[in-house]
Amino acid sequence: MEFNVLNRELSVGSIHIVGVTSASLVQIGDSETIQLAATFDTPPEALIIGPFVPLTPEG
């Protein structure tokens, strides 16, 4: 797969994340290379799929 990106100006005022999944990536800014990998060695019957887990605010 070939993925071409045109870098332009980026301005982020704020980010509000309510929850994350078990495998997530949030990126703001530049990266030359991103490589993601996952290994899942738990038997399928042990997998529990549920709602998002909310993040608690710091402070």
Short description:
By secondary structure, this protein is largely without helices or strands. Helices cover 0% and strands 7% of the residues.
What does this 3D model show about the protein?
With 59 residues, the protein is low in regular secondary structure. The protein has strands spanning 19-20, 53-54. The chain has a two-stranded antiparallel sheet. The radius of gyration is 17 Å and the shape is flat. This is Spore germination protein PD. It comes from Bacillus oleivorans.
Features:
59 residues, Spore germination protein PD, little secondary structure, 2 strands, two-stranded antiparallel sheet
Write down the overall geometry: flat
Q: What is the first-to-last residue Cα distance? A: 43 Å
C-alpha Rg (nearest Å):
17 Å
What is the count of DSSP helices, taking H or I runs of 4+ residues? 0
In which order are the strands of the major sheet placed?
Answer: 1-2
The portion of residues forming beta strands comes to: 5-15%
Protein name: Spore germination protein PD
Organism: Bacillus oleivorans
Write the layout of secondary structure elements.
Elements lengths: L18 E2 L32 E2 L5
Antiparallel strand pairs: 1-2
